[in-house]
Structure formats: structure tokens, C-alpha cells
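Milestone M4 deliverable, item 7.
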Amino acid sequence: MSIKVVATNRKAQHEYFIEDRYEAGIVLTGTEIKSVRAGQVSLKEGYVQYRRGELWLVDVHIAPYEHAGMWTHDPKRPRKLLMHKREIARLASILHEKGYTLIPLRMYLKDGKIAKVEIGLARGKRKYDKRAAIAKRDEGRRLQREWKEYAKR
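Output delivered:
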């Protein structure tokens, strides 16, 4: 079983605390899957919405396929996610709690055929949380530089 990562949401780790991760299938049209295979996907502003017992991927941009002609798709249309009913019901109950949201973390192809989306149950970070994460990262980099200098001696 091979996995080819098509797109990642790098900003998600900075903007949110990711508490849990789930795998979901995604319903795509023919031209969309061709664009996904070409890697023309952007997850930056995307999120997952719960509507009438179903999960929908909203604001994810899948570029129109070049060779589609007049039968192309809308790049930002909502796309249905495929998960078990129990998982969806459990996520829906969690989403009604204050401060939780579902965001797409990465999109990948399983065995080169099936498109999957990894979604994360996330809580938004406050400004001071982001500053603390940046300070921690900078401190780690500084220590790495010092260790590298020490190892050269």
C-alpha cells in the first residue's frame, strides 16, 4: 500500500492545536481526480462542515483540469466526505462543543487510485500560544547551531 501526498496544510499546525486525526474518502468528479493526481490542490483556507448527517469539505481549491474542455468543474465547490456513520455522529457531537473545528491536514492518493483526506479535530490557538510556539522553535534552532559549533571543535 503506497501513499502519495498531494497537498498539505502547513499553516494548520501554526493556527490550531490538532487533538485528533481522521481519514476520510472524498467524492470527486472525473476532472477533479485528474487535477488531484497532478497535484493541483490547495488546502489553505479549507474546513469541514457538518450538514444533515454528512461531512462536507468546503473552500478547498482543486484547479480545473487543463484538457477538460467545456466539461470542467467549479474549483471551490463543496465536496462530500465519506466516513462511517458512527464516526460522523461522534464528530458532530464534539463539534457542538465550544471552540472545536475540523480542518483538512493533507490530501493523498492510496495506491495511486483512491483520494483520501486526513482531517484534524482542532482547537484554535490564541495569539500568545502562537508566540510561545515561535519562541520554542527559535530556541531549538539556537541550540542546534550551538551544538553544531561545539561538535566542530
